[in-house]
Each structure stands twice: as structure tokens, then as C-alpha cells.
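Exam prep: given the inputs below (a chain plus 5-amino-5-deoxy-1-O-phosphono-D-mannitol), describe the expected output before reading on.
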Amino acid sequence: MCGIFGFSGKQNAEEILLQGLKRLEYRGYDSWGVATTKPENEISLRKEVGKIPAFDSTQKHTSITKTHNIGIAHTRWATHGGVTQINAHPHFSTDDSFALAQNGIVENYQEIREELSNAGYKFVSETDTEVIVRLIEREYESILKSQKENETNLFAAICSAFSKLEGRNTIIVLAKNSQEIIAIRNGSPLVVGKSAENEIFLGSDYLSFANRTNSILELDNNQGVIISSRNGNEIKMFSLNSKEHGEQINFLPVEFKTTEMIDSTVDKGEYADFMIKEINEQPDTILAATSYVEKDFSELTLAAKAAKKVYLVGCGTAAFAAQQIAYYMRKLAQVEAVELKGYELSSYREIFGEKDLMIAISQSGETADTIEAAELILAKGGKLASVVNMQGSTLSRLSHYKFFSRTGPEICVASTKAFTAQIAWGYLLAMGITGKFAEAKENLENASQAMQTLLNSENLHKQIESVVDLSLDKEHFFVLGRGLNFAIALEGALKVKEISYKHFEGFAAGELKHGVIALVQKSTPVFSIVSHDETKADMLSATAEVKTRGATTVGISPENNELFDYHVTVPNLGDLAPLVNVIPFQLIAYSLGKKLGNDVDKPRNLAKSVTVK
Ligand code: M6R
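Solution:
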């Protein structure tokens, strides 16, 4: 959801802010805005609906702002209020003395808005964000009644207003008179970077400025920073002691740390879209995700063996990876592991305990529902492990055992390479628990080569195109999987749904006769994922049952079968079959989406990082 960026330095702020926003665009992409200023100047605000443009120095507005060297910016994924220029952030104070952008949802915005409206405050947008702006104004006015006007009053008003917000909110404020950026984090992420030239960057993730510095300052919840451009970009870091005592501010030592350099390349290279680039990176990324030595897993292995129960938690695609990993833990390592959706926690609240282990799976490490689950297990005294792709993200910072997918940035909103990286990691963990770490590594090497051969295969692309042509004028599709491939049926269906906007539904093949078969009519496309495992015979029976009722069958399988009307050939990889079985769905999603004229990297209504509940 939403991305925040801030900059203070000697360069043209608008140019740097637009570049930063572009790198954050994956977090939300319906509208955007930048606010910049310089001493003795008004704040210049530019807000637009649509995609973030490349910086263009010839545009008229840039001549006004090109000397501005401090500013804030925001890319929006609308929650409260439609996609309009007025609702885009940043939002101005009534006297234009500050501008504010937010990432999160003010859960008590209705109460605050009503209270402020009754007190005479005027609102111009429909957003929950504007409530924060007006609240700061009210707090400022009440501070003024008891004190003389001074520049720290706005800071005090911001802290006071922030303490009254409910929900996970991170805000960034540009103050005209003091020439400062004031930012406070709660829930939604915020990372500060400092370059060798003493430029300061603030971003919703480290990736947004990873091309400029790897010296970072991570903020915990209820911590914030003040960046003063007038004082040579001096940084003050503070914490608000508790939500109840928001005005109680403690200043903290500022300690930047050098983080592992990540592959920060955010370009498509030779590819037309990030999605197809990322699909093609998978032979490498499954190896990067499993480039651990056995010792790296020893503590987690002990914790998994000692745990009363292991919970694998995620949302969306990451939940399907969690499901696949739980399957591996049970099947390959005989560990009692269950998958759990981050947003379906309520019945577990009293069940989690100190003997449990949670393994959180997330590309971003910032998914609000997954973080809530992680916080709950920690509060119950349990252990937390995570496998995330983004360095410095909240989940990894919360974890006792931290692992990284190391796939490089995944920009396409639909997850592909992060998914296969996560399940490859889970396979290594499960095999390692039973002392087969070296064997798992070898199997993963072979899987990587098989994946590469598959992606290079002309036959595969021909088979995919036949299935895509079949699918163009159909609306409802079913995907059947079982055992080893149950999670792949769900993920495969999600992938095509996200990119083609067609109704793909994944089911456990065992469910078919219990109801799902009622949906099958003449020519309904039904995909069956059939591997060489103990479910093969049942999968073929399920395929026969839908074919008998008129379905057009598509087999995803190492070999063809007379039951398949269409066949997509995948290699036989034993327990690692899920790694290649998901690829046909990724490619169908891509090709179908392109043929239908959809934006495959930025599908409608979706955001890459779901940081609100
Ligand atoms: O960053 P996370 O992996 O925690 O994100 C979880 C889901 O929001 C994400 O997988 C989502 O389902 C993607 N759109 C899937 O393609």
C-alpha cells in the first residue's frame, strides 16, 4: 500500500523524489504527489492521478522547483476516498505551512473528523490522512495558547496528534518555516539513509534509495526523526514512549549501520515487463534463496524439533508458500506443522504458547496481517523465524531466526520468483531437519537446471500458447491439485486471476465430488496437476470425472495422457515438482494478460505490499 519518500540534500529535490517514488511505485500506483521547498519559499505541491512520470527538466513546473532541495513524496493506493488529485498526498495545512503524507489507515478517523468538524475545522478531501493534518493544527493551536510561538511547537503538535491516532500509521511532514522533515513510524515501515555526501533519504523501504547509499537507520514503532536542512541535514532521532503518553518524547543516539548491499537494479533489462523478467530469473533465485550452509539452519532446526507446534504463516501467495513448506515439514521431516493465514488469527489467540514456533513467510516483510501474527506469537513467548526478501523489513527485525530469499527486488505486483524461492528454502529446511541437507542442495541444483531447460523450451511456449488461445473467450476455470501440488493449484489459480482478471479457482482434487463438480459444464476448462507421487492415480480419476461431464481438460504433467485435451509438459522433479509445476501458470497468466491488454506488472486494484489490515 502507499509508499513514502523524503529527501534533503544539495540536489534538485523533485528529481530525487520522483526517482525514489518510481522505485516505490510497486507499493501503490493510482496517484502520487511531491512537495518541495527551500528557505524563504512557499511549499510547492504537485499531485497527479496516474503513474509516476520520469523527471523532465524541461517541464514548466520544474523551473519553479529546481532550486528546492528538501521535500517529501507519496505514491497512493486508495483506501479512504476515491482516486482523485485532491485525495492524493501530500495534504496541506490550512495556512500552507506544512504538508503531510501518510502510509496506513487512521482507524479512528471518523470520530476525529466529527470532533474536528464540530469544532469548525474544514476538510477538503475524503481521506483519513487529512484528519491527521487538521488534528496537528488543533494541537498546535492549543499549544500556542499556553506558550509563545516557537519552531518546536509544530514538532510537539505532530507528536501529540500522532499519539491520538489508532491503527498502523507512519507519517512524514515537510515544515516550511523550520525547513525540516519530521517523520514518525508506527506499523508501516520507514527507513532513513545517509549518503557519503550527507544527503538524507527516507523511504518506505531500503530499496527506494539502495542505489544511493547502504548506510541506514531503521526506526522501530513510535520512533521518529527530525531532519533539519538549515542545520546541514542534522538528524535527531526520538521515541514517543507510549501511545498513551505521546507527548513524552525521548531523544536517542543516531546510529547508522551499513547494510548488506542488495541488488538494487530496478530495470527490465532485455524484457518487456518485470513479470516475465522475474519468471525467467527463477533458476537463479531458487539457488540464491538456498545459498545457506547447514550451520545457518542449526538453531532453527533445533527450535523446529523442540516445538510443540510449528505454524507457517503468510498471506496471498506467501500463504501458499507457507502451505507448501508445512507440507514439506510434515512429509519430509515428520514435524507437526500447519499453515495459517495471517488474517485468520482470531481462533488461535488463546492457543499460541511459549513452546510454539512460527515461521513467517513474506516477500516484503511488511504485510500487516502477517506481522500481527508474528507479534502475537512473540507476546505469547513463542519463537519466531522468518524468510523475507526485503532487508531491514519489520518481520525480519522481529524474528529470532532471520532468513532472506535473496531474489533481488521483485517489482511485479504478482509474486513469482519470491514464491519459488520461499518453497525452495522450505524444502532445504525440511530436508536439513532429517540430516539430508547436502542431498537437498544437490536436488535444488538439478531443479534449477531443469527449470532453465523448461523456460528455454520452445515446446513449452507452444503448449502455453494453445492453452492461452483456448482461454481467451472463457471466463471460469478450475485448477485441481492434491498432496504435493495442492498449494500449487491454489497459487497457479491466483496467478492467472491476478493478471488476466478471469475467474480461475484452485481446489483440492479430493473436494471435487463433495461439491465443486457441480460447476463443471460442457467446455469448462479444468487444469489437473499430475506428478509422480502417491496422488497420481487419484488425480487421473478426478480428471476422468470432469472430462466425462464435458470439461476441456489441461494436464500439467511430465507425460501426456489420453485424458488430457491439452498437455503442458513439465519435468519430473520428485518432491521439488512444485517448483516447475507453477511455471506454466505464471506463463499463462503473463501471456493471457498481455493478449487481453492488461498491465501485467501493475494489475488493477492490487498493491505489492499490503501494509494495512
Ligand atoms: O509481501 P508478502 O509476501 O507478505 O505479500 C503477501 C501477499 O500480499 C502477496 O503474496 C500477494 O498475494 C501477491 N499479489 C501475490 O501475487
